[in-house]
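Incident log, support desk, overnight shift.

02:14 A customer reports that sequence design results differ from what the structure should imply. Their input is reproduced verbatim below. On-call engineer (initials T.W.) acknowledged and began investigating.
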């Protein structure tokens, strides 16, 4: 699946799985990664974003007013990707 990712998306995937968990990943970059991986994304109520990838579903909260995703949300994204069998 990684062969479809551009360099920026590969970098974001690596950052999501980095240790310690970074707190400066821009949410739009995570959404771009989801799309490149073939995920279905839909807007939920408020700041909720529904994502379905490889049969796995998750709901994330888009950060606001800041653009960066906090460590807890990055960990949730990591767990979701692992469940969907996506790892760098």
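02:41 Re-run completed on a clean worker. Output:
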């Amino acid at each position: 699946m990684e062969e479809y990712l551009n360099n920026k998306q590969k970098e974001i995937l690596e950052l999501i799985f980095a240790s310690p968990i970074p707190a400066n990943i821009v949410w739009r970059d995570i959404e771009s990664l989801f799309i490149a991986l073939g995920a279905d994304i839909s807007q939920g109520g408020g700041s909720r974003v529904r994502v379905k990838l490889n049969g796995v579903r998750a709901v994330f909260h888009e950060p606001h007013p800041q653009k960066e995703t906090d460590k807890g949300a990055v960990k949730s994204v990591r767990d979701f990707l692992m469940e969907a069998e996506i790892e760098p």
